[in-house]
Design a protein that fits this description.
The chain is α+β, with helices and mostly antiparallel strands. It has a single domain, classed as Sufe protein. Chain: A (Alpha-Beta Complex). Helices cover 56% and strands 16% of the residues. A three-stranded antiparallel beta sheet has the order 1-2-3, covered by helices on one side. Helix 5 packs across helix 6. The radius of gyration is 17 Å and the shape is elongated. The N and C termini lie far apart (69 Å). It binds FE2/S2 (inorganic) cluster. The site of FE2/S2 (inorganic) cluster (FES) has 10 residues, from helix 3 and helix 6. FE2/S2 (inorganic) cluster (FES) binds next to helix 3 and helix 6.
Length: 147
């Protein structure tokens, strides 16, 4: 049987989750909860760790097959918005060519997140920067291999 304390904790937790959802929007909230595409990758073709001005870091891993991204994932020690932005950035990366990856901008990530608080705008900057740097590292390794 549920104790009074258990019921209280359940109620408070539910309230906090509802407030978080209202503050971040349904899409970002869902990403934060499910952590879709969060995780490191073995043998990525390109990866990069970027530290933002807030002190948090984001790592993006890319795996290519031919000219397109076949695998993409991220890790972050940052806030809930950084989890949502990393998840959205790498989801959009799937199936794209290097040129098309450059179209994944902070604005596009913010748009897809659909309602991040303005003080978390930089979390989308961090996700896009990590994605683009992972691409940059991949392109550099291609050039080295071609020599
Ligand atoms: Fe640092 Fe979101 S990534 S506050």
């Amino acid at each position: 049987m549920e104790s009074e304390l258990d019921a209280f904790v359940k109620e408070i937790t539910g309230e906090i989750l509802e407030e978080t959802k209202a503050a971040y929007g349904a899409e970002a909230f869902e990403r934060w909860k499910t952590r879709r595409f969060m995780g490191s990758m073995e043998n990525p073709d390109g990866y990069a760790v970027i530290r933002g001005g807030c002190g948090d870091s984001m790592t993006v891993y890319l795996g290519f097959e031919g000219e397109r991204v076949r695998r993409a994932s991220f890790m972050t020690d940052g806030c809930g918005s950084s989890v949502a932005c990393g998840s959205l950035a790498v989801e959009m990366a799937h199936g794209r060519t290097p040129d098309e990856l450059l179209d994944i901008t902070p604005d596009l990530i913010r748009e897809r997140a659909g309602g991040l608080p303005s003080e978390d705008d930089h979390c989308a900057d961090l996700a896009a920067a990590a994605l683009h740097e992972a691409l940059n590292r991949y392109m550099q390794s291609r050039v080295r291999r071609a020599r």
